[in-house]
Write a structure and sequence with these properties.
The radius of gyration is 21 Å and the shape is globular. By secondary structure, the protein is of the alpha/beta class. The protein is built from 16 helices and 13 strands. The protein has a seven-stranded parallel beta sheet with strand order 3-2-1-4-5-6-7, sandwiched between helices. A six-stranded parallel beta sheet has the order 10-9-8-11-12-13, sandwiched between helices. 47% of the residues lie in helices and 16% in strands. Helix 1 (17-29) packs across helix 16, helix 6 packs antiparallel against helix 7 and helix 9 (230-250) packs across helix 14 (343-355).
Length: 392
C-alpha cells in the first residue's frame, strides 16, 4: 500500500513528543507499506535529518517554515474565523508539494499528523486518517485558565476555533487518532461521529531507554523536555520556586538538572550553576535520566501521554508527578508512580524517595515492569495497520 505521511514537524530525529511518535509510526508503517513523507523544516541544519530519515521511507519532501512569516500569518488570522494554528502552518509551497504528490503518485491512504496539517488534504477524496495525538482545543482551554490577559483571550479564542475545526475534521476524515481513552472521551463529548475516533497509545524503545550499568547519583533530580514548551516551562518555574526550596530544607545538597532544548529566558534565569543546572539541548538525555535518583514531572497543564515519564520508568528511575502528568500514563499510584498535586506533598514524596532506598527500588522495578507490559511500538504499529485495513 502507498501512504503519504504529512507532518508539521520532520519526524526525525525522535527527540521530542511529536517527533518520537511520528518517527516510530513512519518506521513501523514502512515495514509493510511504501511511505512518502512531506513535512516542514525550520532550519537548513535539518537537511541532514532529511537524509537520515530517507532510510526509513520511500521519499522525503520538505519546505522551510519561516518563523516571522508564520507569526505574521497568525496575527492576520485573528481577523478570520479559522484557528490561528492553521494560519501559522499554511504554506503555498507545501500545498503545491502535497497536491503534486497526490496527483502523480496515486496514494492509497493519506496519513496526517496534527490538526494543523489537515488543511492540505481537507477536500481530497482519498481515504485519510489523522493523528491528532491530543485534543488540542482542550489544551488551549487549559492554557487560557493558566494565564492572564491578553494571552488568556488569545488562548480562549484559539480553543473555540479549534473545537469547531476538530468537529469538521471528525466529519471529513475516515478516522481520527488520539493517544488515550481519556482523550477519546473528551473528543467524543463534542464530536458528531464518535465511532470514527480511535485511541492508539504511544510506545517506548525499551532497548534504547534501558537502565544504566552505573549506580545512580544520590540526591539528584531530573526533568526532561523541550524547554520552549509552555507546560514544561510552567512546570519548572513552579517546581523551582515552590517545591525545590521545601526539598532543600530537608536535603540541602540536592541538585536539579533541567534537560531539554531551547530553554527560554525564564528557564535560563532559574539556573544558578550550583544546585539548578539548565543544560539546553543535549545529544542524549539518557545519561542525565539514568544517573538521577528521581525524575520529577510537576505538570499543571498537560494532555496525552508524557514521553518523559515513560522514558524515566523504562530506565528504572522513579517518577513523582501530578494528576495531570499521570492522567495519560495511567500508572498505579504509590506502586508504579507517585502522584502529588499539593506542593508540600510533592516535596515530601521527593524527599521520601531520596531517603528510602527500598522504596526507590520498588518504584523502579514496578515502573519498568509497567512499560514492558503496556508500551510497545510494535503493538502500536499492529493496531494502526488493522485500522488502515479497515479504512482502505
Amino acid at each position: 500500500m502507498k501512504i503519504l505521511f504529512i507532518s508539521q514537524r520532520l519526524p526525525y530525529p525522535p527527540i521530542r513528543g511529536d517527533k518520537i511518535r511520528g518517527f516510530n509510526l513512519v518506521r513501523g508503517l514502512s515495514e509493510q507499506h511504501d511511505v512518502s513523507v512531506v513535512s516542514f523544516i525550520r532550519t537548513t541544519k535539518e537537511m541532514a535529518d532529511v537524509e537520515a530519515l530517507k532510510q526509513y521511507c520511500t521519499s522525503v519532501d520538505v519546505c522551510m517554515l519561516g518563523e516571522w512569516k508564520s507569526k505574521l500569518n497568525a496575527c492576520l488570522g485573528v481577523f478570520t474565523t479559522k484557528p490561528l494554528t492553521l494560519s501559522w502552518y499554511y504554506s503555498k509551497q507545501l500545498w503545491d508539494i502535497v497536491q503534486k504528490k497526490i496527483r502523480d503518485e496515486k496514494f492509497d491512504l493519506l496519513f496526517v499528523m496534527c490538526s494543523s496539517m489537515a488543511q492540505y488534504v481537507f477536500d481530497n477524496d482519498n481515504p485519510k486518517i489523522i493523528d491528532l495525538v491530543d485534543v488540542d482545543s482542550e489544551k488551549w482551554i487549559q492554557y487560557a485558565n493558566r494565564t492572564s490577559f491578553p494571552y488568556s483571550w488569545v488562548y480562549s479564542l484559539e480553543a473555540k476555533r479549534l473545537r469547531r475545526y476538530e468537529k469538521d475534521i471528525n466529519k471529513i476524515f475516515n478516522n481520527c487518532l488520539v493517544v488515550t481513552e481519556e482523550e477519546k472521551k473528551i473528543f467524543s463529548s463534542f464530536s458528531l461521529y464518535p465511532d470514527k475516533i480511535t485511541a492508539i497509545s504511544i510506545g517506548i524503545d525499551e532497548e534504547y531507554f534501558k537502565p544504566l550499568l552505573e549506580e545512580y547519583t544520590s540526591n539528584t533530580i531530573v526533568f526532561t523536555g523541550a524547554m520552549d514548551y509552555f507546560p514544561n516551562i510552567d512546570a519548572m518555574i513552579f517546581f523551582c520556586k515552590e517545591i525545590l526550596p521545601l526539598v532543600k530544607e530537608k536535603l540541602p545538597d540536592v541538585i536539579l538538572y533541567i534537560v531539554g532544548s531551547s530553554p527560554t529566558q525564564e528557564v535560563q534565569r532559574l539556573a544558578n550553576n550550583k544546585d539548578i543546572i539548565v543544560t539546553g539541548y543535549v545529544d542524549d538525555t539518557r545519561p542525565y535520566i539514568g544517573k538521577s535518583a528521581v525524575c520529577v514531572v510537576p505538570l499543571r497543564v498537560a494532555q496525552g501521554i508524557q514521553n518523559k515519564i515513560l522514558e524515566a520508568m523504562s530506565m528504572g528511575i522513579p517518577v513523582v508527578t501530578t494528576s495531570f502528568g499521570n492522567k495519560g500514563v495511567g500508572a498505579e499510584e504509590d506502586k508504579e508512580i507517585v502522584v502529588a498535586d499539593d506542593k508540600n506533598k510533592f516535596a515530601e514524596k521527593v524527599v521520601e524517595i531520596l531517603q528510602n532506598r527500598i522504596l526507590r527500588d520498588q518504584l523502579s522495578r514496578n515502573g519498568k515492569q509497567l512499560i514492558g507490559q503496556r508500551y510497545s511500538w510494535k503493538r502500536v504499529t499492529d493496531e494502526l495497520n488493522e485500522l488502515i485495513e479497515t479504512v482502505c
